[in-house]
Amino acid sequence: MSAGITRNKALAMLRDFVQNERMIWHCLASEAVLKALARKLNQDEEKWGIAGLLHDLDVEITNADPKIHGLETAKILSNEGVAKEIIDAIRLHNEEATNEPRSEMLHHALAAGETITGLIIATALVYPDKNIASVKPKSVVKRMKEKAFAASVKRETILECERIGIPIEEFASIAVRSMQEISDQIGF
Fold first, then answer.
1. In angstroms, rounded to a whole number, what is the distance separating the alpha carbons of residues 58 and 30?
2. In 27, 41, 121, 148, which residue has its Cα 20 to 30 A from 47's Cα atom?
3. What DSSP line would sit under 36-102, residue for residue?
4. Cα(119)–Cα(76) distance, rounded to whole angstroms?
């Protein structure tokens, strides 16, 4: 089944809606993580990648307001013919905007995958070279336990990786490796 949108069109939309380059890097990192998870879980890489790429499309429109962030993206993408599965995952990645629980594999993967990117970047930034190439998955897992480190990163959301059958150690490894592969595109 098709994603209903090409990656090129999705990337063009992202660049139209999001001006902050760091937020674009976050979306590219999320796309890479989601595609790696799709490969691991024998899911549709194109769909999962698009979900990662577009999940924060409305972040500037909504001013990242947790009460509505994700809902505007869902409206925008429904008018573009994007697959319902992608739209639902994006709508549900921000649990504060809906009263619906995440229930599908893609829902959990997107929430956990986009969240761990922040922890990985925060980990890279404490290294002298501030380079993602220096980040080790075990360091990310260690930082998970340090509540004061990157305190705004929701550890319980990252741990949703276990709901899709991937232990945190393996999840961190998949996420770090996928982000390292595109480090030239994400500024780290």
1. 15
2. 121
3. HHHHHTT--HHHHHHHHHHTTTTTTTTTT-TTTTTHHHHHHHHTTT--HHHHHHHHHSSTTT-SPPP
4. 28
84 part of a folded domain: yes
Asked whether residue 81 is assigned to any structural domain, the reply reads: yes
Whether 188 is in a domain gets the answer: no
Structural domain of 57: 7-181
The two three-digit tokens of residue 109, written as one number: 């993967």
> At a CB cut-off of 8 Å and minimum separation 6, what does 100 contact?
92
> Does 2 map to a domain?
no
pLDDT of residue 1: 53
**Helix, strand, or coil (residue 172):** helix
- Number of domains forming the structure of the chain: 1
Q: CATH number of the domain at 90, please.
A: 1.10.3210
For residue 40, give the amino acid letter: K
pLDDT digit string, tens, across residues 28-56: 999 999 999 999 999 999 999 999 999 99
What is the CB neighbour count within 10 angstroms for residue 10?
Answer: 26
For residue 188, give both structure tokens: 């780290």
The residue type of 43 is Q
In this predicted model, what pLDDT tens digit does every residue of 101-127 receive, in sequence order? 999 999 999 999 999 999 999 999 999
Numbers of helices and strands, H then E, in the chain = 9, 0
